[in-house]
Amino acid sequence: MDQQPRPRVSPMAAWTSACLMAGFVLAATATVAAAQSVADFYGKKRISLMISSGVGGGYDLYGRTVARFMGDHIPGKPSIIPQNKPGAGGMKLLNFAYNKAPKDGSVIFTLHIGLPLHQVLGGRGVRYDASKLIGIGRVTAGNAVTAVWHTKGVKTFADLSKKLVTLGSTGASSVSSIFPTVAQNLLGANFKVIMGYKGGEQVMLAMERGEVDGFGAFNIASMQATRPQYISQKQVYPMVQWGLHREKLWSDIPLAGDLAKSPIDKKAVEALSAQMEIGRSYYLAPGVPRDRVQALRTALKKTVTDSRFITAATKLKMLIRYASGEQTEKTIANILATPKDAVERLKAVMVKRGGGSCKEYTDPRFCRKKKKKKGKKKSS
Question: Phi then psi for 303, rounded to 5 degrees?
């Protein structure tokens, strides 16, 4: 059978056909994307709410309580699973969430308050850009105190000139290390910071066992929820509070800024204290679709006014001071814009003196384990 010659196709016709085909493909893709609504996406997903501390502390309590109720306010009503990933003052989780976790809105995470300023100060281990974090919202915020256990015999900041006080902390980038270090080197306190505890809960237990004299930082919201007896029964004596305004509960405790000895010192301390506005807030890594971001922001806002959440929070003595996702992003932006002279002053006083290792003061199981360096196997 004779083959018929194929008709010639002009270059213009071929180009037009290719464009039409590409248009059909794009249209089909757009239709599929449009069909994947927020409800469709979350209805088939489990959300991980990753917590930057160990079990039992304030970050953990707030995170788990939010996880219980927030899913009901997200289209598709996904379940939310809390996951603890402590280490390095919260940096272990932030680096993971920023670089390795899915960027589709299925991973929410807490943020240790010291990490944006740690970036500004050029701290080690930073593999994130805090300016690109997407805020979902904040559940609470408040000042923190550096405090001493009641048996030490130190009741005021002035008493610190007479006795050396050991304070437990987690990682170098945590405010539990930074606050007392600055108090020592800039405000004149007599502290020895013992670093390396797995989390704040381990620090409190070490203090209660008499292994250390106090803690470097404890947020008012966390303290009221997990250790209210510390203040009500005068089990600890706060030395100084970190924040921009005094808490009513601690109206007689000086702000760090009140103890500064010069205008530049006050400026540096207030830059440090501004971190407390981050509080217990929740974030997404950059790249999450905007409709999912908005759905999660709306869900958190509805959660904090949910009667079931309020009942649970009241029973747990949780302090609620809500702020929107946009406000949490603005707080971080303000921290990242800390004036250079304040940054340089902080850098100058954050060189640690007289520190110690967690393992020297407590059972090693309460301390973080150092990762073993992978070495090359020797050839036989």
Answer: -65, -45
| Token couple for 5 | 């010659």
CA dihedral 314, 318, 322, 325 (to 10 degrees): -120
Domain definitions of the chain by residue range: 42-141+277-337, 144-275+342-366
- pTM score of the predicted model: 0.80
Would you state the CATH architecture of domain 42-141+277-337? 3-Layer(aba) Sandwich (3.40)
Q: What single-letter DSSP state applies at residue 212?
A: S
Stated as kind and residue range, the H or E segment containing 84 is: strand 79-84
The alpha carbon of 286 is separated from its chain's Cα centroid by a whole number of angstroms, namely: 16
Q: Name the fold adopted by 144-275+342-366.
A: D-Maltodextrin-Binding Protein; domain 2 (3.40.190)
pLDDT along the chain (380 residues), means of 10: 52 52 43 68 96 90 97 98 92 97 98 94 94 98 97 96 93 87 94 91 95 95 92 96 95 96 94 94 98 98 98 95 98 95 92 81 89 52
Q: Are strands 214-219 and 144-149 parallel, antiparallel or unpaired?
A: antiparallel
Query: Which of 119, 110, 138 has the alpha carbon at shortest distance from 50?
Result: 110
